Amino acid sequence: MAEISLKRPFILSIVLIGWDASLPSVQTQIHIESKGFDSTLELNFNSIWFVSSSFDQFTSSLLNDQTALLMDMDRMLTIQVASPSEGLELTINHKKYYSDDRWVNTELAAKLDQDSLANLKEQFKNLPKWW
Predict the structure, then answer these.
(1) Distance CA 68, CA 88 (A)
(2) Can you give the three-state secondary structure of the chain, one letter per residue?
(3) Residue 102: CB partners within 8 Å, gap ≥ 6?
(4) Distance CA 112, CA 87 (A)
(5) Sheet architecture: strand order including 25-35
(6) pTM of structure
(7) Can you tell which superkingdom this protein's organism belongs to (predicted)?
């Protein structure tokens, strides 16, 4: 099992747990955790699928210091590294739709320091690929 793990600015763990050669696509488990003074936000996803090439595109954009966007196949979860005018930013957005015209949108965004960015780049660059 391959894993991408980030400890700052919040905990992000992406574990590759399976794949489907017919698309090709990658199945992941994702854990996100952010602790504040008086609260904790924690999201756990047991099965999120990504088109395999989206990992390649995300990695390429990340390594070339461009805005990098990783979006799951259902278009419900996005992970983005961008450089707005105030500096690097890591944003995770999850939108869950329900059958009765309700939805929940959760977004977590934080400044990303150079050490964390370098760590993230290295992990995506060295990610074992089955595709």
Answers:
(1) 11
(2) CEEEEECCCCEEEEEEEEEECCCCEEEEEEEEEEECCCCEEEEEEEEEEEEHHHHHHHHHHHHCCCCEEEECCCCCEEEEEECCCCCCEEEEEEEEECCCCCEEEEEEEEECCHHHHHHHHHHHHCCCCCC
(3) none
(4) 8
(5) 2-6, 11-20, 25-35, 40-51
(6) 0.90
(7) Bacteria
Encode pLDDT of 67-125 as tens digits: 999 999 999 999 999 986 678 999 999 998 888 889 899 999 999 999 999 999 999 99
Enumerate domains of the chain plus CATH numbers: 2-125 (2.30.31)
For residue 126, list its beta bridge partners.
none
Taking alpha carbons only, the member of 78, 29, 20 closest to residue 52 is 20
What are the tokens at 63?
């390594």
In angstroms, the CA 53 to CA 56 distance is: 5
